[in-house]
Amino acid sequence: VQSENNSFESQISKHKSWQKTMLSYKQMEKSMAPSQKYRKPAVDWRRQMERGTLVFGRWYEGPQSSDYLPGNTVDRLQNVREPFSEAEWAERKQYRSWDIMKLGYGGLALF
């Protein structure tokens, strides 16, 4: 009976020593928690998608009052000369000094 009691008591004393170590670690672990002071005040896009609060598109306004949301987009390739009127475009053409053709002819002349 004495040996059974001793083995039981030894397990209890081992548990007490382990529990002491574990509780000190848990106390230290609390101090390692991130501070709310340095919390990033933003929600990542995956959480926004799950919550249904994700806004697709751009925050700035695009051309012709488009904000790039689906159904409110503008194809910029429809009119590549858009910033200039036809008269302004013709005037700008007069001042082009080098174009791809002249550069290509110069390259061929070297070979």
The helix-strand sequence is HHHH
| Class by alpha and beta content | mainly alpha
Helix content percent band: 40-55%
Strand content: under 5%
If you average the pLDDT, what whole number results?
82
**What is the tally of beta strands?**
0
Ends apart, CA distance between termini = 106 Å
Low-pLDDT segments = none
* SS field, number of helical segments: 4
Largest sheet: none
Radius of gyration: 37 Å
* Apparent shape: elongated
Descriptive notes:
With 111 residues, the chain is an all-alpha fold. The chain has helices spanning 2-31, 45-51, 86-94, 100-110.
Chart the SSEs and their pairings.
Blueprint: H1 2-31, H2 45-51, H3 86-94, H4 100-110
Main attributes of the structure:
about 110 residues, mainly alpha
Question: What's this model, at a glance?
Answer:
This protein has helices at 2-31, 45-51, 86-94, 100-110. With 111 residues, it is mostly helical. The chain starts with a helix and ends with a helix.
